[in-house]
Amino acid sequence: MSNTIIPRLSWWQRLTAEFTRSPVSVMLNITAMLVLVLIAIPIVQWALIDAVWTGDSGDSCPPGSGACWAFIGSKLRLILFGRFPYDDQWRSLVGTVILVALVVISLNPIFWRKWLLPAWVAGLLSYGILMWGGVFGLSYVESSLWGGLPLTILLTVFGVAFGLVISVPLALGRQSKLPVFRLFSIVFVEAVRGVPLISVLFMASVLLPLILPDGFTPDGLGRVLIGLTLFLAAYMAEVLRGGLQAIPKGQYEACRSLGIAYWPMMLKVILPQAFETVLPAMVNLFIGALKGTSLVVIVAMMDLLGAAQAALADPKWIGFYVETYVFAGIIYALMCGSISWYGRQTERSLRDMREQSNDR
Amino acid sequence: MKSGPTYQDVPGGVRLARLFAQREFQSQALFVIIVVVLVWGAIQVASENLAESSGKSGFAFLWQKAAFELGESLIPYSAGDTYFMAFVVGVLNTLKVAALGIVLSTFVGLIIALGQLSKSVVIARLCRGYVEVVRNVPLLLQLLFWHTFLLRGLPTVRQALSPVEGVYFTNRGLYLLSPVAEPSFWVVMLALLGGIALAVGLRIWHRKTNAEFTLWPWGLSIAILPAIAAIYFAGAPISWDIPHLSGFNFKGGLTITPEFTAMLLGLSLYTGAFNAEIIRAGILGVPKGQVEAGFSLGLHPGQVMRKIVLPQALRIIIPPISNSYLNLTKESSLGVAIGYPEVVRVANITLAETSQSLECVSIIMLIYLILSLITSMILNLMNARTSREER
Description:
- The structure holds 2 protein chains of 2 kinds.
- Chain A has a domain at 149-335: Orthogonal Bundle (MetI-like fold).
- Chain A has helices at residues 11-19, 23-49, 69-81, 89-106, 116-132, 148-175, 179-194, 197-211, 220-246, 249-257, 262-277, 279-292, 304-312, 321-359.
- Chain A starts with 10 loop residues before the first helix and ends with a helix.
- Chain A is globular and about 75 Å long.
- Chain A is mainly alpha-helical.
- In chain B, strands 1-2-7 form a 3-stranded antiparallel sheet. In chain B, strands 3-4 form a two-stranded antiparallel sheet. Chain B has a two-stranded antiparallel sheet with strand order 5-6.
């Protein structure tokens, strides 16, 4: 792919070349470095040098000392796992690792093989068993106790997965010639996109118990997940519509002349190409979904942010909000960063695959 | 939807039968029937559930008296006014923070975008880092952080931080001096308007006669001189209301609540990161040849920026940035989490007091839908004005 003859410079060479591009840029760079160092010194002082690393109550971190990482250390399990029963938190950890591994594998086209479906079935089954328990001697943990990072990941993964599934008929409906489907899709997508996520979550937690018969009402987690899914589906449908519009008309006509019916044409020819086109936009939506799950705090669920808030409420430790929010923020930033990194990787490998198949 | 030739002389019944036989028609009819049945069932269950809880439904509660105070309001409001008034206060607060947030986030975005395009690699990397970090941390977390910081990180009223005379940072809010109109205010304003009108008139007249008339210094002095004369003769147009400590709090001046400050900070910094990317893409989207052509025509850098780069960059920037503004407006709903009295917060308190949950959530959705529609209408108009006239 890269058959350019320009010699590749190391990052250091490139950096120094850019650093000394012109006298003005050298001066600007040196000034910026000085300012940066002046800002960085107190931060490093606070975060590392003066920081307190061990201790079991707020008294170990007297005012005037640096960051109190001892607080994060003592609250780590609460922040990461929420109210999940302390001795069973390994289950939540293992389950989440399985879930994340499945997602990571499925996103790479190299692994799109026959064994992926049974792998998902087995994975989801073990995920459910680990989280709920109640069999094989595992104690039952109701979903209202699930929390922390596993809850954030659960909401993101299932919200995105179900959202994708629903977004396909919505996007196709919006393109459809049949007025009923088109109208329904347009009204749904535009209405959902016009309101904030929090109102959709409120609606889901208020409306669902009202309109469903007793006994069919999902629990708090289910309601939030339904709200999140519908919200994401509307945005994904809009992104997917962009992809569908980018497909050349010739693709449809080729299918029709080969006698391929509507659904096989869509599933095997049009949609795969559409998804490939909109991959970058979809990745942005996934990141948005991950960040959006933090809103469940407002409807009294304890995801990563909620658990961090809960940790702050301990009267033994007062006032370590900077450490807590920085810690939670780093976790979110790392997750979002790795999604966008993985998105770029997938994009590249898809492009490579396509070029290889074109060469053949 | 063609299914064989349909002629005018085919009897209506046969045409109808043909229509019914189409798969397109059947699938749509089935869909409509399913939706109707589901909605009907939902209404049945809902009315049963509502009857059980003996809740009154409908929007009549809007005219009852609300028993809560709201932290801040643009119009006079106190406990005892109707719920409707509370919602009006909420909408105004939403608009207030959204409008200021849009201005500030554009400003932040512009600075970061220019920083990313800076000649200095260090500044460029720093601005890049800002965008990457801020975009990848949930807005709610940032809002909670700023709110907690303003409440706990700032000193008490007694030990207020005062960077300049008349400005106090405390954990109860920011206190600024506020301008108060004196009797001479209107005289001075009138003089200023007259001066501007005179300058504009002169400019138009000069342009007709092709004479040189520059904004600096002649235009500006003609515009401003009458106002200065008015101040000299009639006295200062405004005086400053300086906040002063009385009892446990500051009195006078302008008070900005920690909630509002946190909302404005969080929304502007977060949306600013997105705007930076949009603005950067817009500026980079103008072909280099355009700038070079401008210079070779003898325009100076300001003219190239104003007449060549900006108009073309705006064309690229406006559609995505209008989306970003809409997002900011919707995200102002997170004020509910830190107690900023915007629409969702008001609805949430009302919901807790009246348990008219369905109505309250519907009101939120309706208000935001209307806001979205109005905003996108305005932005579409703007977009139509800046977009290129196709040949």
